[in-house]
Design a protein that fits this description.
ligase, Pantoate_ligase, 359 residues, ligase activity, nucleotide-binding, three-stranded antiparallel β-sheet, seven-stranded mixed β-sheet, Rossmann-like_a/b/a_fold, binds adenosine monophosphate, alpha/beta
Amino acid sequence: MLRSATRIPSTKFAFSRRMSSTAANAFRVFREVDPLRAYRRQRVLDQKSIGLVPTMGALHQGHLSLARQAAQENDEVFVSIYVNPTQFGVNEDLDSYPRTWDSDLEKLHALDQELAAYARGRITTIFAPTTKVMYPTLPPSSEIDGPGSFVTISPLAHVLEGASRPVFFRGVATVCTKLFNIVQPDKVYFGQKDVQQTVIIRRMVQDFHIPTEVRICPTEREPDGLAMSSRNVYLGTRRRAVGLVLSQALHRAQEQYKGGRRRRDDILWPAYDLLNSRVMEQEDSPPTERALFDVDYISLADPDTLQEVEVVEEGKGAILSGAIKMLPIEEAKEGEDLGLGDGQVPVRLIDNLILKPGA
Ligand code: AMP
């Protein structure tokens, strides 16, 4: 039954295998639905719980933290790796999205070795379907009015990130519905980093009575505060340093909230202040020094509806979030680290902080 499940070749992970006697635990890679279902069915009969971590690959510590938590709360962890075309708009970066299959598997294998020491569960399964498997009847469309079977969650999908990326959450909700139907996980794991996604997935699970529990894990950050993201490899040193302004701005606004402010303007002004001054500073610098960026939005929103709030309700708290777009580098300096794509790939950075009720 498990014929199309690829076992990871033992030579590839010779080093990590020597570290423990877990060769029998090498995970399976499924590319088709039926064999994965057969494997899953056996897990049900064995009364094993499954935690699913959906990803688009290019794995970093943020993804691994989800798998780590999943392993602490389940008998087995399934990780899906699939770059979903329907969540990229027609002019977005589907082709340039980083794909790092070999190092993804190495990272998962190393994590699995770590989990052996303390976790309840292990990573047993990678699901890496082709697009023909995920979209079996029609070629997937990224057009707003394009044909296809899609899941839409309105109006949550149309604010914030959805305002600039109109098909994004339709694609996310559609692919997650497919993944949840295929895997039938007991729990699914998502990162706080993509906060709007977490709100939409929760709503979708509730509205469609999907029998799974949505678990949200904290945002993993670099030591300087930059939220980890697969797209950070495109930043390079100059844009990375300037891009930090987003998390700094959000932290300034959070300080206002912690200091007792509840009105929108009182909370947000220091964030706008910092962003504006950083924009002007870049515009006044020479092209060899600067990293220009556009501010898409800074939001203070209701945690359930994502509608903007004028005053944060004491018992509810709010979501403070923002997005900026780092523009291509205009003029490189000799020997400068411009990141993957030589600094020419625009990079959208998003980040958020939760303003907890009564904090
Ligand atoms: P992606 O591969 O970017 O679609 O992300 C897959 C999952 O990893 C999503 O649930 C993301 O929210 C989560 N994730 C991405 N970056 C981070 C991060 N820095 N910290 C925690 N979770 C993250």
